[in-house]
Amino acid sequence: MSMLISISPPAAQSFFLADSSGSKKKQFLSIQNPLRSPTVTPLSSSFTTFNPLRLSIKSNEMMMKVKRKESGRGFGAVCHAGSLTTPSLHWISALSSAVLVLAKGTAVQKSFLVPLFALQAPPAVISWIKGEYGIWTAFLALLFRLFFFIPGELELPFMALLLVIVAPYQVMNIRGKQEGAIVGLVIAAYLAFQHFSRIGNLQRAFEQGSVVATIAVACVVVTSCLLLI
Q: What percentage of the chain reaches a pLDDT higher than 70?
């Protein structure tokens, strides 16, 4: 005589057919236990490795590399163009004018350098001259000039101080505008004409006694052209 015996392990229920002697003959049915908590199946490696954020970072890195390659060709030109800003040109013009005032190997009329300095000097220098320290410097220089002799080369900076201090607002307002750049270019061109016409030829312009003045005149002309552009 056969009977149905149920054996219930934790994970499933298995049914066997057994005879009267109690020996197991054959597994009849296996049913999953619904009360047991489900087993968590690990995700595949291909699914766990997918990360949208990592994908966007990689795409951004690729775009940055492409941009660097495209801009690499013009990097040197950008650096050189970035160094010649308007404040840099103002400083170059002011220093060239100061060198030309003290230079000996030239026959230019140096009084033209005073209005050129007032038009093309850096804004920081103009603000200092118009401030309290600049006014006191001009006052002490004027007192010294009344009682002592000042050479012509050293008198021109004093005249530049006075010109900047007493210049009307309408005159100083053309600084940084096209009108001021045109006036500065005209003065620079006239100084270059005087220098090269009175010195004779280009060979004498680059001799030891006049090469400093020639370089200063060239710098003044070039900076005046760049400021107009």
A: 64
